[in-house]
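Hi U.,

Before I forget, here's the chain from the pilot set. I'm dumping it here mostly so it's searchable later in email.
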Amino acid sequence: MKTGRSVVYARNGGAAASQPLAVSAAISILKQGGSFIDAGIALSAVISVVEPGASHLGGDAFLVTHHAASKENLAFNGSGEGSHAATPENYADGIPMHGYKSGTVPGLVSTWFEAHKRYGKLPMAQILEQAIQYAEHGFPANAGFVKRIEGHLALAPETRMFADMGIDVNVKIGDLVVQKDLARSLKEIAAGGRAAFYEGRIASQLVAGSEHWFSAEDIKAHTTRVLEPLSAKYREFTVHGQPPPTQGMILLEELLINERFDLASMSEADRIHIGVESKKVSFADRNEILGDPEFVAVNTERLLSKDHIDRRVGEISMTAAGTDVAPVNEGSDTTYFLVSDSEGNAVSWIQSVFHGFGSSWVIPETGILLNNRLTGFSLDPCSPNIIAPGKRPAHTLNAFTVTKADGSLYLVGGTPGANIQVQTNLQLITNVIDLGQNVQEAIESPHWQHLNGPGLSSEEESGPGVLQIEDRVAPEVIEALKAKGHNIAPLAAWGHGSSSQLMEVLPNGTHAFGSDPRCEGHASGL
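Structure:
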């Protein structure tokens, strides 16, 4: 297929992200001799400065890394815990969407240092230099930055958040955005390390500003967990994703279901149907078992077992869409990016404040926006995801890598999009592996997303949900899906809620990068 963007081919590493300045920061660090993780941290920090509606220092991060020489794959889980006050009794009236009571302890900065400890080469001061410069001296606002501010003000016109961040709400495209408090915080982290965030002034400001809703002990106790990824074999490859409490298990379950079908020889309508039906049953399993594995047993081995996949495949009809669909809550704002280096190492990185601008609350005098990830908890005492102090909520965030039979790297990819993430990642992987598309074709192919939950009509929410498909799909495909009982809602040609980045390692060792035209970023290589 003809694509709007070209594949970027490189031998010495590269990066792909939703914001061009952040991509440039990663490339600069690679040119300075930095590792894939050094470049990833630089990109992470810059994108927090220039794209604060989606991710920030007060949010979380999840990484899947591949180390080429050792063929080691690791999952870095930087999800934050609920504070000592995170009890059902303290949220008897529900968990608020905004304010410090909607947040968890931030995990992003901890994840920087945990990953840097293993794979970093350059000092943190050098890595954070570009983020500090953009915060202190300003960066030109792009269209996405302005649009996010306008959108948030339409929902919450009374918010003090932008004033506390030092951002002019009347900013126009090309205007410089300066964030002096954030620059000071980044300088403290660059000089003082992890402790500057979790034990120093920033932590003290979070405690005082939240009126001790967070305690010094809550913040200091936070750790980034480093684990083996959750993995499953798909065709002749192995897909690696995030273990619980993220819903990376859904992607693997979807893939194991899709593996039972010859997708390459199927009609497009049947292929979409199988993808949607695999999503429905996988989300039903998610609602039943997903929680913090340090608090509840999450049996992913059973979930991904042959017996369970047999049962789920047997429940899928090729002629009728499933109607018993478990509702899911939707977050909205996240950042995904990937980086590789000249040694063949790579990171699949996703970070978030959850909903747009997170809690809409800034840690006083720090410029740091707090997440509202606590809203991911349940207040149902029967749920494995019931809120509790020190517990991590179930997460939508997940990213993936794919390795070959010999353990070498094949694919790195992911996307923002809350519960759309695992649906998009399924399409990216099957587009490459089953349909033989290159990375840019896989990204630009018409996408679908199945939604069911808050925001839909009562009939849609309680029934089969809505299957949204970009209108570049042929009319006969839409009619065939309608005949199976799918409730179709067309999207604009590029209206799917993804912002995908994808990298393939070609047989000759070249890295091929693709980037989603649905966002403002791009891919770049060395």
